[in-house]
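BUG: 3D viewer hangs when loading the predicted structure for this chain

Environment: internal workstation, default settings.
Expected: structure renders.
Actual: progress bar stalls at 90%.

Input used:
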Amino acid sequence: MHADPLIAGAASRGGDLAAIDALIERQLIPQIIDIDRQALYPADFLRALGALGGFAGVVAPAHGGNGLGLRHTLDVMQAVSRQCLSSGFLVWCQTACARYLQLSCNEAAKAFWLPRIARGETMAGTGLSNTMKSNDGIENFRLSARRVAGGYEIDGTLPWVSNLGRDHVFVTGCPSDDGGMMFFLVDCANTSVHLADCAHFAALDGTRTLACRFRSTFIADAEVLAHPDEGRAYLRRIKPGMILAQMGMGLGLVAGCVALMHEANRQLAHVNRYLDDQVGDIEAALADAHERTHALAETLACEPLADVVPEILRLRAAGSELALRAANAAMLHQGARGYLMRSPAQRRLREAYFVAIVTPALKHLRREIAQLQAADAGLAA
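Structure tokens produced before the viewer hung:
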């Protein structure tokens, strides 16, 4: 039996969850209000998390990873999101980009960028929202690629890409004029990539979410992760894990809401017992979602193309619904205290809506599930 390259050497390459919990306690928690209210981008925390191996689970040891797999990435994201979903989302952006690279066939790009991203030396985003929605027929592509000597020229604008800055990178994809979908890495140091503030959000405003404009921006072949004839197969490889990994945000938020419910019940259990959702109900649903998420993560770790897409879509939709349910329950359990601007309860409620609207949004997931069900019914007929 051959050792899985994502597991070999894992024990000596970082990612200790106790050390990560201590970092969250020491460095993230004191910043949460400023992250939420002042749009503070937690750069120092993210780099320290990378140094501890928090981003390295989805990266093979050969490329600087810790080999602990998608399950470890989910655990890190859950630990961060339990306190601050904005920061948990940044963990997802960073690790999603790393996984896109890991699953590409561009060995030179992997060798150069993955160690830097895994260690948190280079921050990384994911610009695949429009790509995914357009590929599923929900909206039009906002970017286009034209084949030129040595690479492609990109035109168009992505309105919202998160975890960005001039020293950051991100991955996106678009149709090419020679047919098919191509995917590529964008180095934001490229001066022909124009970054601009785009909007202020009800929550997650500290995520460095910027608009990205391309005007005949040259992307060399060395930065291409999948050429047009490879694009559809590449999307099939990265999409299931990209969606499943978002469960780390939802699971963490729900765990944070459970903590708020317990806190409220120390004084208000006698009246909170009349609310529809009790802490035991949310805890049971959380335990079930956690078990299902980890099982699917193990399956994808063995085979990224495993036939589990319907299960992932249903789980991710259920995760959105549970996040909304738990945040609503936490708010009602806290009562008037939860309505104060400094209260985590009202922040968790705003964050829960993000779990349900980030791509793929709850309505997007339900649409895909319905399409799969219709296709299965057609085959059965």
